């Protein structure tokens, strides 16, 4: 998925309904989505405020994987639930898995899940320093999908690799295994016959 970062239009705002699954949260995206498609992008990366805080990608939660400065694995970062972010089940599942020592051992990944404010300036900086390793669209239908580039101020931030990286692949596989009954991960799934 390619994303066009948009700050002129607003999908959700404090005190609004951004944290709820309601039709009104999606109509603000129609016009920017058309403009993004005309520029060759698949979806919108919604930014908010003068500091251009990253919120969501289209109608999905948005995560990034960033190499840590201390060398202790990887940060898995997504926006904090501040009333503008949909608290999706897939979002919560990815955060819980990423922080689980058993999942980390099984996947040989050292992950530090974080819910925090981060901006396009952070993304540009991480990319220029070679620390931005993956960008992920997370949601019910897509489960975990890769973002390959983000258009911002006339330039593209290119995400390394061609598809899901190790973090996105591990999260997607585990969630699908749970959903499709191949594993009963800590009681998350119940096989019904």
TrEMBL record:
Keywords: Amino-acid biosynthesis, Aminotransferase, Branched-chain amino acid biosynthesis, Pyridoxal phosphate, Transferase. Its EC number is 2.6.1.42. It catalyses: L-valine + 2-oxoglutarate = 3-methyl-2-oxobutanoate + L-glutamate; L-leucine + 2-oxoglutarate = 4-methyl-2-oxopentanoate + L-glutamate; L-isoleucine + 2-oxoglutarate = (S)-3-methyl-2-oxopentanoate + L-glutamate. It comes from Rhizopogon vinicolor AM-OR11-026. One of its GO terms (cellular component) is mitochondrion. GO terms for biological process: L-leucine biosynthetic process; L-valine biosynthetic process. InterPro entries: Aminotrans_IV (IPR001544), Aminotrans_IV_CS (IPR018300), Aminotransferase-like (IPR036038), B_amino_transII (IPR005786), BCAT-like_C (IPR043132), BCAT-like_N (IPR043131). PROSITE patterns: AA_TRANSFER_CLASS_4. This is Branched-chain-amino-acid aminotransferase.
């Amino acid at each position: 998925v390619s994303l066009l970062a948009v700050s002129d239009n607003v999908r959700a705002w404090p005190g609004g309904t951004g944290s709820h699954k309601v039709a009104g949260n999606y109509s603000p995206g129609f016009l920017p989505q058309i403009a993004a498609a005309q520029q060759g992008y698949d979806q919108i990366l919604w930014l908010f405020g003068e500091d251009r805080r990253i919120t969501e990608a289209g109608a999905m939660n948005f995560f990034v994987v960033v190499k840590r400065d201390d060398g202790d694995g990887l940060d898995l970062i997504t926006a904090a639930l501040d009333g503008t972010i949909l608290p999706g089940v897939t979002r919560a599942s990815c955060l819980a898995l990423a922080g689980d020592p058993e999942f980390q051992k099984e996947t040989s990944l050292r992950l530090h899940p974080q819910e925090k404010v981060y901006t396009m300036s952070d993304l540009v900086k991480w990319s220029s320093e070679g620390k931005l390793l993956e960008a992920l669209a997370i949601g019910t239908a897509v489960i975990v999908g890769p973002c390959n580039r983000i258009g911002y101020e006339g330039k593209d931030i290119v995400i390394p690799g061609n598809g899901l990286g190790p973090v996105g692949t591990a999260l997607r596989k585990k969630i699908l295994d749970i959903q499709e009954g191949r594993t009963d991960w800590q009681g998350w799934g119940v096989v019904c016959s």
